[in-house]
Amino acid sequence: LSEFKNETFSKKVHLAFDASITNLELQFKHDTNTFRVERGNLMAKDRDIEVANLQLRRGASDITVNGKMPGLFNYLVDRNTPLQISGTLSSQNLQLDDFLPNNSKTGSSTGSDFIPAQMQFRLAADISNFSFGKFKATALSGELDIKDQKAVVSDMTLKTMQGEARVDAFADNSRHKLELVLQSRLSNINLQ
């Protein structure tokens, strides 16, 4: 039994499956809210996981994800191994407040980093309606890359306040303090 447990996620084990998911509710540790998985496909081949048309709901937000998580099992067994995620995200309505922990809305801190360590993330996003607090935008699209507790948003375009914006941003959380650099080009923004 101990050998089985030790070898479950080793390279000696080959894993392959193809599953359809419908009407699944997920709740993560230290999170009071749930994710509703309406439908989607989950595939595994060797040590890689892939999701296709994974439709999620959380609060008023809807998300469709397509992507890959190579080496997921290595990450699960060894927390020093980075979690790698690449793919696309689309949404008709994404309210960022739906995804923030309750304590971040009140300004308190849990002592954890805003950008987690050991995460490598590459995502192309296409969001029809986006909101964060009182800020609202439409037709948001762009690229997000996260590695070594640094995040880069590139070529993000959006429509807001009767105008348009093009944004590039860099966030560094590697020294346990979030530092931001933002460059944008605004066009016909109405601040009234």
Short description:
With 192 residues, the chain is mainly β. It has helices spanning 2-7, 72-77, 102-106; strands at residues 16-26, 35-45, 48-58, 61-70, 83-91, 94-95, 119-132, 135-147, 150-160, 163-172, 179-187.
Mean pLDDT value: 84
Quaternary structure annotation: single chain
Q: Would you list the SSEs in sequence order as H and E?
A: HEEEEHEEHEEEEE
Instruction: Enumerate how many helices there are, as a single number.
Output: 3
Instruction: Report the biggest beta sheet as strand number plus sense, adding barrel if it closes.
Output: 11 strands, mixed
Look at the helices and sheets and give the structural class: mainly beta
Q: Tally of extended strands? A: 11
Net shape? globular
> In which range does the helix fraction lie?
under 10%
Q: List unreliable stretches of 5+ residues.
A: 104-110
Rg from alpha-carbon coordinates: 19 Å
